[in-house]
Amino acid sequence: MDLNSENIDLPPGGFCVTVAPDPSTLMRILIVEDEPDLLQALARAVRDAGYAVDIADNGEDGLFNAENTDYDAIILDVMLPKLDGWEVLSRLRKSKKTPVLMLTARDQSRDRVRGLDTGADDYMVKPFDLPELFARLRALIRRSAGKTSNVLEIGDVVIDTAARNISRLGKAIEITAREYALVEFLALHRGEVVTRTTLYEHLFDEDDATLSNLLDVHVSNIRKKLGHEFIVTRRGHGYCIE
Fold first, then answer.
1. Which of 34, 44, 231, 238 is within CB 3.0–4.6 Å of 195 for a Cys-Cys bond?
2. Largest CA-CA distance found in the chain, in angstroms, rounded
């Protein structure tokens, strides 16, 4: 299986996804899938698109992660060992409203209805295109943050979450994927003070060994590009966009 090619060939019963290099946000996603090759291939593709990713290969571990970590979205397979996707979703909804995109190989309306009625936010049937999966994830994340448009305007700064670009006074701003992720996350939570811990939980996955002072470096770089007052520091609390 060639993970570096544009098409990922997965084992029988899986699906083929088309990967487009993408300076996506580094929102944190949980993928729960029991087929090892499929799980690793999908995780690799999602990471390559710029998301921070945690994985689980059974329902019990997936539910534990989902209940104990604040993910931006969860990709949840239906057919899982220990706890199936329906049960994971049902239990999760007792405590969390995390957006959930369910995956299944069963293309039957009753399964889609069951998933949505159980609390799924969206539903995709294998095979599917990865760009569509990302588009659905972005829509789920926007809706969960109370945003209906993919364009966020903050003073003279415009953030396009679909195109993943930022402009100021009509001029495109060169920005790294992680800087973009930080700007988008704070913009989606405009007016809220976001702690450093929360930012790390959403910008980095559990295997990331990035040094803590890099957050300050990213904030400094963003201020140079978008204005010193664009991100406000709340000493002892965190950062916010007002």
1. 238
2. 54
State which amino acid sits at residue 22: D
Q: What is the pLDDT of residues 95-138, one digit of tens each?
A: 998 999 998 876 666 766 776 777 788 888 887 788 888 888 88
Alpha helices, DSSP H, located in the chain: 36-48, 59-68, 85-92, 109-118, 130-144, 177-188, 196-203, 214-226
Cβ contact 137:110 at 8 Å: no
In tens, the pLDDT along 194-234 reads 988 888 877 766 555 555 577 888 899 999 999 999 999 98
Amino acid code (one letter) for 207 = D
Distance, CA of 189 to CA of 185 (rounded, Å): 6
Let me know how long the chain is.
Answer: 242
Alpha-carbon distance of 13 to 6, in angstroms, equals: 20
> Which tokens sit at 155?
């003073």
Give the closest residue to 241 by CA, choosing from 202, 196, 190: 190
The 3 state secondary structure assigned to 69-110 is: CCCCEEEEECCCCCCCHHHHHHHHCCCCCCCEEEEECCCCHH
Q: What whole-number distance in Å separates Cα of residue 148 and Cα of residue 151? A: 9
Q: Spelled out in words, what is the top-level CATH class assigned to the domain 151-240?
A: mainly alpha
122 forms beta bridges with 101
Q: Which CATH number fits domain 7-144: 3.40.50.1240, 3.40.50.2300, 3.30.450.20, 3.40.50.1460?
A: 3.40.50.2300
In the chain, domain spans: 7-144, 151-240
**Phi, psi (degrees; rounded to nearest 5) at 137:** -60, -45
